[in-house]
Amino acid sequence: MRKATLAVLAAASALCAADAQAQLRGDTGLTITLGRHTAQGGDIAYRDGFLLDVLAAARVRTMPRWSIIAAGGVSVVASNTTDVCVLRAEGRCAPFGNFGVINALAGASTSVGPFRARALAGPALYNGADDTSLGVQARVDFNAPVTRHVGLGAMMRATFLPSHGGARLFPWAVGGSITFR
């Protein structure tokens, strides 16, 4: 009787450990997101654009139900490449909402049903629309495994730039993601 009980406990423990490891795989890796980017505020022409975002994430510490994550990423936002001029009040052309973005984020990751949820925040450097500025970015990712090393999901992020081109700017983005673990 004792041997059977020990065997059942050992098997249950191994299954729990395997399940925990499978859940943790969604924390790290390379996430590529394609989506829509919009900039609100400021004096920018063509505020809506296409987003290509690449984020590399690593697990810093593992807890029983969640993990601490550190990540860094780069983004390109393309809103317009024409030579159309949207006039400002002072007679100059408003800059286009084309940006290059670099971020350094930290946060937490946990399982939510079959999904892995990740919430990150940190500084983001925006370059474009005739200025460069530093702001704060918050990002949420949801990811579900498709295979052992690939997951599909969604990303949402918002950034506050206190002074970009002399005005407050609130860029935000949503998109579909693929994660390689």
**Unreliable stretches:** 5-25
Main-sheet strand order equals 1-2-3-4-5-6-7-8
Question: Roughly how many Å apart are the termini?
Answer: 42 Å
Q: Order of helices and strands, N to C?
A: HEEEEEEEE
**Computed structural class:** mainly beta
Shape: elongated
- Count of alpha and pi helical runs: 1
Helix share of residues?
10-25%
What does this structure look like?
The chain is mainly beta. 13% of the residues lie in helices and 62% in strands. An eight-stranded antiparallel barrel has the order 1-2-3-4-5-6-7-8. The relative contact order is 0.21. The model is unreliable at 5-25 (pLDDT under 50).
Q: Which structural traits does this protein have?
A:
181 residues; 13% helix; 8 strands; mainly beta; 1 helix
Structure summarized in a few sentences:
With 181 residues, the chain is mainly beta. Helices cover 13% and strands 62% of the residues. The termini are far apart.
Task: Record the SSE blueprint.
Elements lengths: L1 H23 L4 E13 L6 E15 L3 E13 L20 E14 L2 E14 L2 E15 L4 E15 L2 E14 L1
Antiparallel strand pairs: 1-2, 1-8, 2-3, 3-4, 4-5, 5-6, 6-7, 7-8
